[in-house]
Amino acid sequence: MADKHIEDLPPQDRRGFFAASLARLLGPVADYLEKKLPLGLMVMRIRPRPPGAIPEKEFLETCYRCGTCADACPANAIVMMRDEPDDDGGGTPNIDPNRQACVICEELICMRGCPSGALRPVDRFAIRMGLAVVDYGLCLRSKGQSCTKCITHCPLGDVAIRLDDTGCVRVIDPAATGRGCVGCGLCQQHCPTIAKRAIRVGAL
């Protein structure tokens, strides 16, 4: 087989050849990324964390699961996750906007009182809990109604969310502008489409 050209190989052998070549090519790349990328980038965040949360992998390793942040939260927005089998997040704090969103309180008590360093003090505009996404098929404005509850209840105002030139709700992505939605979830909590919210926060 070593003396044959690739075009002379049967289809199944060609697939094997390309698979082996791809593995040889990507293997070193994967090893490099694993060594060079920050550990927090290797684990996806699947739930909104309290303000000031460090990257997810580091967060899971650092958090004491003590509940200090939850006890300190004036809005009672932080809840401690239940321990689940095969879930490293058991006992860690998260925020469920359908229950109670973060209000971005002036004191930002949770991050300042965290004893482990899993939450670190940052400016309120630098908070990154998640990013709100609008489902325009569900949004009442697409049905001719003048609802602006998501905008009215945003603690950051038009820095984070506003109506665009067409009258649609537009969420400002801070990745593009440096300032924008911090993922507090107040828009989701107050959205009147209760069965399924027209605006929802996804974790970063």
Task: Tag the structure with descriptive keywords.
single chain; 204 residues; alpha+beta; 2 domains; two-stranded antiparallel sheet; 7 helices; globular
Q: How much helix, percentage-wise, in residues? A: 25-40%
Strands side by side in the biggest sheet: 1-2
Q: Average pLDDT across residues?
A: 84
Number of E strands: 6
Choose one word for the global shape. globular
**Which sheet architecture does the biggest sheet show?**
2 strands, antiparallel
| Overall SS class | alpha+beta
H and E order? HHHEEHEHEEHHE
- Spans of at least 5 consecutive residues whose pLDDT stays below 50 are 32-42
Terminal CA distance: 49 Å
- Percentage of residues in strands: 5-15%
Count of discrete domains:
2
The number of helical runs is 7
What's the alpha carbon Rg, rounded to whole Å?
A: 23 Å
